[in-house]
Amino acid sequence: MGAETRKDTHEATVSGTPLASWCGNSMVEWLLVDGINIKSTDELLNGLCLRMVGLGIPIRRMFCLLRILHPQVFGEKFIWLRENDGIEKFSDSHDVLEKSLRRECPCIPVVDLNTTVRRRLDIANPVLDFPILEDLVKMGVTDFVSYPLRWSNDQVNIFSIATDRPGGFTSAELTEISGMLPVLGRLIETQSLRRTAVTLLNTYLGSYTGERVLKGLVKRGDGEDISAVIWFCDLRGSTPLADSMARVEFLGILNEFFDCMAGAVLDHGGEVLRYVGDAVLAIFPIEQLPPNKDSDRSQTNTACMEALNAAIDAKKRMVKQNQVRLEQGKQELGFGIALHMGDVTFGNIGVERRLEFTVIGAAANEAARLESMCKTLDQPILISETLARCVPGKWMSLGHFHLRGISSSQEIFAPDYAHYK
Predict the structure, then answer these.
(1) Which CATH number do you get for residue 268?
(2) In terms of domains, do 270 and 292 share one?
(3) In the structure, what pLDDT confidence band is assigned to residue 194 with cuts at 50, 70 and 90?
(4) Per-residue DSSP letters for 374-402?
(5) Is position 337 within any domain?
(6) Taking the mean position of all CA atoms in its chain, how far away is CA 43?
(7) At 130, is the pLDDT very low, low, confident or very high (cuts 50, 70, 90)?
(8) pTM to 2 decimals?
C-alpha cells in the first residue's frame, strides 16, 4: 500500500483498548515503570527510542512536535536519529515552527482531522506529498508513520517514526506503537504542564518568586525574611506625557522605559517584582547570587555590584533610547534610579482571592524615598549610605539629607562614573 490515511477516535485508542492489550505491551510497561520517573521530555523520548530498538523495532528516525503555551515560542520539536547520541531539541518562534509543522507532515490530516498517516517509500512511485519524505528517501527510509499524540485538553501534537528496514514496519509493531501512545501522551503532557507553569510563573512573577510559589508559599502571609539590594526607579514627567498623547502612544513609551530598566535588572541577575504605574520595584537577593570565584568579595558585595552594574547599564540604554527619540523629533525621557540595601519580608500580601508576592519593610520604603531625591539632586542614580559602605571607592558623596518620613539625615551617594566609561 502506497499511502494510508486512517481516522482514529479517542475511544478506539484509549477507553476502547482492552486492558489486557496494555498489560502485554512492553513499551507501556517501560513507560509506567521507568519512563514515569524521567523528568524531561527529551530524556523520555530518547529512552523510548532506545527501548523500541531493544525490542527489535528498527526505527531510523523519530520526530515529535509539541505545541506549548509560551509568550514567544510556538512549540518544541524533538528529533532522534539512530546514528546520533540522544535527542536534538529545538524551540522556535511561532512562524518558524509552523513552517516546520507543514514540512514534517500533512498538517490537516494529522492535526486538524486527528488521523494517522503512513507512507511506504520502498515501492514504485511512492507518494511524496510533503517535503520531509524526499529527505527520508535519501536516508534510505522505507516506511514512515505519523500519529496524532493527544492530550487530555483535546490538543493534538505529532509523533512520527521511520524505519529503513526492507518491507517497513510490521502490523504487530505498529499495533504496539499505537497502543502505547495514550500513555506517552499523558506523561509528556504532565511534563509540559509543569514547564508551562514554570514559564508563566517566571514571566509574570519572576524566577526567584516563581520558585517559592512552586515550593508552596501560596497562602496570604506566607513569606520569609531576606537581605537584598532594593532597586526602585521612576519615569520622570509621566503625567504631562500621558496627558499630551494617546493612551496607545503612552503605553509604547512605558514599554521603552521598562525595556531599559527591567531589561537591565534581569540581565544582571535581579528580580523584577512590580510595575507600579511608571515605576519598577526590583531586588537583588543576596542569597541568590553566588560569590565571585575570581575574588574574595562576599555575596553582599556581589549583589551590590550587580545592582550597580544594572543601574549603569540601564542609564546607557536610556541614553541610546533618547538619541533615537531625538532623531525622531520626540522629547527625551527622564528617569531616576535608587539603590538601597536592607532586610525585608518577601512574601504574599493582599486578599485571599488576589495575592501579590512582593517585599515589605522599612528598607523598601526608604528606597522609594531615596528615588524621589533624584529630581531634587539632579542625579539619574542615587545610592544609599548602607549600600555604599559595602563597596568603598565606587561612589561620590553628595552630602547628608533628610528623606521624607525619616527623622535622621543620611548621606547620599552617586556612582563614580569614571569607573564605568
Answers:
(1) 3.30.70.1230
(2) yes
(3) confident
(4) HHHHT-SEEEEHHHHTTSTTSEEEEEEEP
(5) yes
(6) 19
(7) confident
(8) 0.65
CB 159 within 8 A of CB 181: yes
Q: How confident is the model at residue 102 (pLDDT cuts 50, 70, 90)?
A: low
107 within some domain: yes
Residue 93 dihedral angles phi and psi, to the nearest 5°: -65, 170
**Residue closest to 307 by CA, chosen among 267, 272, 273, 339:** 339
**CA–CA gap between residue 287 and residue 343 (Å, rounded):** 12
Retrieve residue 240's grid coordinates: 504631562
Report the CATH number that the domain containing residue 185 is assigned in CATH.
Answer: 3.30.450.40
SS3 68: coil
Both 199 and 126 in a single domain? yes
Amino acid at 12: A
pLDDT at 15 (0 to 100): 39
Q: Are strands 271-276 and 279-285 parallel, antiparallel or unpaired?
A: antiparallel
Please state the domain count of the chain: 2
Q: If you average pLDDT over residues 118-135, what whole number do you get?
A: 89
Does residue 262 sit in the same domain as residue 329?
Answer: yes
Alpha helices of 88-227 — where are they, by DSSP H?
94-104, 107, 132-138, 171-204, 207-214
User: pLDDT band at residue 234, thresholds of 50, 70 and 90?
Assistant: very high
> What is the spatial distance between Cα 338 and Cα 319, in angstroms, rounded to a whole number?
18
Q: Are 231 and 265 in contact (CB under 8 A)?
A: yes
- Could you give phi then psi for residue 328, rounded to 5 degrees? -90, 5
One-letter amino acid at 194 equals R
- Distances, alpha carbon 12 to alpha carbons 27, 29, 112, 281, in Å: 18, 20, 18, 54
pLDDT of residue 34: 93
Q: Domain span at residue 330?
A: 215-420
Alpha helices of 66-170 — where are they, by DSSP H? 94-104, 107, 132-138
pLDDT at residue 193, as a whole number:
85
Rounded CA-CA distance 371/382 in Å is 7
- What is the chain's mean pLDDT, rounded? 83
Residue 397 near residue 411, CB atoms below 8 Å:
yes
Q: What is the mean pLDDT of residues 408-413?
A: 89
Are residues 155 and 51 located together in one domain of the fold?
yes
Answer yes or no: are the C-beta atoms of 286 and 228 closer than 8 Å: yes
Q: Residue 111's closest CA among 153, 159, 69, 179?
A: 159
Residue 110 confidence class, pLDDT cut points 50, 70, 90 = low
Residue 300 pLDDT class (50, 70, 90 cuts): confident
